[in-house]
Amino acid sequence: MAFFRMLILLLFMGCLLMIRTPAAGQGQLIQKEKLLLEMYDTILKIPSDSSRITQAAVFRDSLVAFLQLPGSFSHPFRQLKNVSMLLDSKKTFRIFTYSIPLQLGTFRYVGLIQQKRPGNPKVCILADLGKKTSGVETKVLDSMQWYGALYYQLIEKKHDNRLIYTLLGWDGNDLNSNRKVIEILTFNELEEPLFGLPIFRGGSYDSNVRIIFEFAENAVMALRYDQQYIITSKTWNAAKRGYDQKRKRASLIVFDRLVPLDERLPDDKRFHIPALDAFDGFIFTGGVWEFVTGVDVRNPAKK
Question: 3-class SS at 114?
Answer without folding.
Answer: strand
